[in-house]
Specification:
By secondary structure, the chain is mainly β. The protein has no helices and eleven strands.
Length: 136
């Protein structure tokens, strides 16, 4: 059985807070006690880590990290919830509706609810980005 140690911060009269310390390296991000999952289970070289979500007691938002290896892409999809995205490393072409835009580190993207969207890597480096969505 895997031992899970989460750094909890307790404050008087408040809910439990959690810290997941960064354990990764440049362009290969990871956090302690955060599992790495295949993206939607069908993309071999695309992963997702949820480091703020239901397991941490976050009811209002989820913060996730996605990593797409060179030549990979996310689903072409649309759904009711919005996304806030920050590119951390790598380059990509992002489709928003019928518009295609190149993005790079430190670019931010707001994806409206029900907008068709997809990320496709560009170049020889993996793409890594943070994505915030409303809690489910």
């Amino acid at each position: 059985m895997k031992e899970i140690i989460i750094r909890n911060v307790y404050t008087k009269g408040k809910n439990m807070s959690v810290i997941h310390k960064f354990t990764g390296t440049q362009n290969n991000y990871s956090w302690e006690n955060v599992d790495i999952h295949k993206y939607n289970g069908k993309f071999e070289r695309v992963t997702k880590q949820v480091f703020i979500g239901p397991e941490e007691g976050s009811n209002n938002f989820h913060l996730r990290y996605f990593r797409l290896e060179p030549g990979e892409h996310s689903n072409l999809e649309r759904h009711p919830h919005e996304h806030g995205v920050l590119i951390l490393h790598g380059r990509a072409v992002v489709q928003l509706g019928e518009t295609f835009t190149e993005v790079e580190p430190n670019d931010t993207i707001f994806i409206s609810g029900n907008d068709l969207h997809q990320f496709k890597t560009k170049g020889n480096e993996p793409l890594g980005f943070l994505c915030v969505i409303k809690g489910k």
